[in-house]
Amino acid sequence: MAIGERYEGILDAACGVIAHRGFHQASIREIARAAGLSLAGLYHYVGEKDELLFLVLGRSLDRLVESLDRNLADARTPESRLLALIQTHLDFGFHHAHALRIINRDHELLAEPRRSEISARRQAYLQRGLTVLRELDPHGRADAELFSATNLLLGMLNGIATRPFLRSADDARALAAEVGALFLHGFLEGSSRPGETSRLALRRPA
Question: Where does the pLDDT of residue 191 fall: very low under 50, low under 70, confident under 90, or very high at 90 and above?
């Protein structure tokens, strides 16, 4: 097996074990076993567990940001860029559920300076979302309010970018349109209308 393939396999194994067990409970020996390596063989490629978490987070965030940049480049209007952001996040959650869980749960467990580097990559993704909402905003909201709205949107997406909401790639596309319509209504109008319930709230996952 080529070194690059072996290296990717190690990161895949680490991602799966850490996502299931949690960073503190996951052991290097478990990761080596999942990668099909001896403990000595694993240490030939990587060092301690902190390094593995750093590499998994870096690769995952790079993939997420690169995917978003491609999709935003194809979008021609502020509304379509919002939908691109939503669908990118949901697609990533469907195809890389373990990676998204680690991004949201374990990034602060890194020691410095690795924690700061990963935080900067997370902020780069958040900044793209803030830019999307700024282009969409018809009210000239302050950055602090746009920042809160961006975090609200991404937090909502994190909550539904998993089963039972997503069972297929088609679910991701349909849910992206639904969330986009819901978020656009709340964002553009400023508040929900009394008595209105979104289709998302009525969704009954199997």
Answer: very low
For 18, 60, 113, the CA distances from 184, given in Å and listed in that order, are 35, 28, 38
> Does residue 33 or residue 167 have the better pLDDT?
33
**What is the chain written as a DSSP string?**
--HHHHHHHHHHHHHHHHHHH-TTT--HHHHHHHTT--HHHHHHH--SHHHHHHHHHHHHHHHHHHHHHHHHHH--SHHHHHHHHHHHHHHHHHH-HHHHHHHHHTGGGSPTTHHHHHHHHHHHHHHHHHHHHHHH-SS---HHHHHHHHHHHHHHHHHHSSTTT-SSHHHHHHHHHHHHHHHHHHHHHSSPPTT---HHHH----
CA 130 to chain centre: 15
Residues near 66 by Cβ (< 8 Å), separated by ≥ 6? none
Q: Would you say residue 199 has pLDDT above 70?
A: no
Q: What is the Cα–Cα distance from 69 to 114, expressed in whole angstroms?
A: 24
CB 171 within 8 A of CB 165: yes
